């Protein structure tokens, strides 16, 4: 019996049609292996953006429990003060984390399983993108190139840093989809423009993951289009396809754009802190010395951000062996090195410290492009080398180095938030953005739920958070009371007591004020979704449905 099963397994592994299943299994096992130190860690390390994103996940999970996946303000997390993070920061791509937490109550386990899923998705998306690029540019069906690229890109230092230490889930999602975006853009400009579907899908996903990355990628895309203009054949069809794709992307993201623009036009909100670009650029020490150790310590120079040893090795190998690269490898090398140059202090960022480009915040954000091009460059070199042993050894080294890095980080870093005391990490955050400007100087008191009743200080501790709303319980009084509740007012808020809607206004600290009738012991506050938001959502949903209809129609025809 054992011999029969073994024979069937061997035959299964040899069959070409099961290649994708085998590769997916490989990436899945690899993802669990690499995140095993995290999965066995009973808590969180309090990473740079960890508190912020855990607040978002907890809030989304609470909304899902009420069958309310769409929300514009945060009422369960972020100190329960009605912060409009969901309006200004895309959140729909975090729903898988919320669903996992809904299924698995243990927040640590559910989130770390989510990180495992992100790593697996990164491998798969990178493999799919390089498989398409291999057929398009190299005109072959090499399996080695996509595998090498997927592992080199998925384990690149900046991605692992974002995933494990910095915990920037938005940028992680962008990095996952970036290879597909790049190949989709290449298809429209220089390949088969009828395959515009990947470009639209990836661009829409990027927009729903991280707005700042979307702006950066859009800017880079414009430059690439301009540089490719004279190389295009069938220029008219390609440009029309690009315009059509851009229109689709705009329609698909109206649900994101309309609430953001409408709310920002009504209320002045604090934006993320903008520092000096020149001071945030990578130094030679962080670019090279830290990278040699695959350092992921946020206390080091430039917050510990570095290339990582895999991408650093890629740069060194491809620089030394530049002549052995294919023409596409050489192009990727030039693009990767230019992006790396932009990340460092060698570029005169000081000239842009007082320009709109400051929105970039950190020049090392451009490492997403260094990872993309240099991982592609390394896969090009190792495939051109055509030595299977060297390829396997290189992959084993990448996996070993990354596992060792994660293991050392989880075993030596202080566990700031064990499972037993996660409330502080998931109910409030170290810093807040997007609050009304007039609330900024009062924020510490608002976070402590301090307000006033008839001008006297009162702490509103008795409250019940609801999706897009809050229920406050207050002492009963026989007379009308004037309340200033610690709930941020971005407009569109309705207040009711005893099923009667009450007029309200904004206080000097940007919170909600109103008069409460006598003999009322509770107030219900609810964010009333504007009609324009609903129309935008309907248009975006219809656009996405139509897009998938066209995509499936193309696939069937193909």
TrEMBL record:
The chain crosses the membrane at residues 20-39, 88-104, 111-134, 146-165, 172-190, 196-227, 239-261, 304-322, 334-352, 364-383, 390-410, 531-552. It comes from the Bacteria. Keywords: Membrane, Transmembrane, Transmembrane helix. This is YfhO family protein. It comes from Liquorilactobacillus uvarum DSM 19971. The lineage of its organism: Bacteria, Bacillati, Bacillota, Bacilli, Lactobacillales.
